[in-house]
Amino acid sequence: xxxxxxxxxxxxxxxxxxxxxxxxxxxxxxxxxxxxxxxxxxx
Length: 43
Hints:
By secondary structure, the protein is mainly alpha-helical. The protein has one helix spanning about 5-40.
């Protein structure tokens, strides 16, 4: 296994959790935005 392949594989494994975290954060922020919008409309 050459060094470049090792670096690429390491980068892929490092990016997976951050992609999942970003996805969850996006959903969470979206939910917050929707709930805030609902209260603004009700008032």
